[in-house]
């Protein structure tokens, strides 16, 4: 099973979200073509009502713990209640920052002493 599919199925089952977007962002990083190691999850669910951000992230991480331990290098989480989502992001979900790690890092010369 694809990592993307496993994440999506587990989150759908656990949270019954009103919106879920699981994006493989591996191509934005210094990894082999076709990799499944860097993901962004945007999830909107009533289950997050009354939860602090840290607890939302812990809840998602607990559901995808197997993938985090064995397959995923990075997981960007955007967790919202329906009210937050519709107020701030419904028209345009948050974008992930560009990766400058590995071979894509810009080379800069160190100043001479």
Automatic annotation (TrEMBL):
Question: Superkingdom, according to UniProt?
Answer: Bacteria
Q: Where is this region: Disordered?
A: 94-113
Compositional bias per record (Basic and acidic residues), positions renumbered to this chain: 103-113
What is any Pfam family matched here? Answer: BolA
Q: Which family does it belong to?
A: Belongs to the BolA/IbaG family.
What is the protein's given name? BolA protein
